[in-house]
């Protein structure tokens, strides 16, 4: 016996297709922000190539540089986390493993972002 099922019938009940738009927009916005901030970061680092550690701390401590560096780090980790999330969603098909890896992905990127940002803030507020 042949069953006549349309592709819509096969996909019914598998969830809404609306949830990916926010993720897509955020990934594009973080990429746009990183385009600008990466140029600033490259110029900033090249300018500090011959600097002493004290000069680096002083440069990072400048309010504009501290804010831009924190934005750069935040957007970098957020954008990277979203990219790894897409890879996990596309290529890990076991539900329990996917959930475990998604939790690990967020935890690792959050921990790295926190350590990086605290390091920048410590340099910014140090009295060297």
From TrEMBL:
An example Gene Ontology biological process: tricarboxylic acid cycle
GO-annotated molecular function: heme binding; metal ion binding
InterPro entries: SQR/QFR_C/D, Succ_DH_anchor, SuccDH_FuR_B_TM-su
Pathway field: Carbohydrate metabolism; tricarboxylic acid cycle
GO CC annotation: membrane
Annotated transmembrane regions: 29-50, 56-78, 99-125
A Pfam match: Sdh_cyt
UniProt entry tagged with the keyword Transport: yes
Cleaved signal peptide residues: none
Keywords: Electron transport, Heme, Iron, Membrane, Metal-binding, Transmembrane, Transmembrane helix, Transport, Tricarboxylic acid cycle
Subcellular location as annotated: Membrane
Membrane topology: Multi-pass membrane protein
UniProt keyword Signal present: no
Record-given protein name: Succinate dehydrogenase hydrophobic membrane anchor subunit
Organism of this sequence: Pseudoxanthomonas composti
């Amino acid at each position: 016996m042949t069953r006549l099922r349309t592709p819509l019938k096969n996909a019914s009940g598998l969830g809404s297709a609306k949830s990916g738009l926010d993720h897509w927009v955020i990934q594009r916005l973080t990429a746009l922000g990183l385009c600008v901030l990466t140029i600033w970061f490259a110029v900033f680092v090249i300018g500090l190539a011959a600097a002493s550690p004290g000069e680096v701390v002083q440069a990072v401590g400048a309010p504009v540089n501290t804010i831009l560096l924190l934005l750069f780090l935040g957007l970098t980790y957020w954008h990277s986390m979203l990219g790894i999330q897409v890879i996990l969603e596309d290529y890990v098909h076991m539900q329990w493993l996917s959930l475990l890896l998604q939790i690990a992905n967020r935890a690792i990127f959050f921990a790295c972002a926190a350590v990086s940002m605290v390091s920048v803030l410590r340099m910014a507020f140090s009295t060297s």
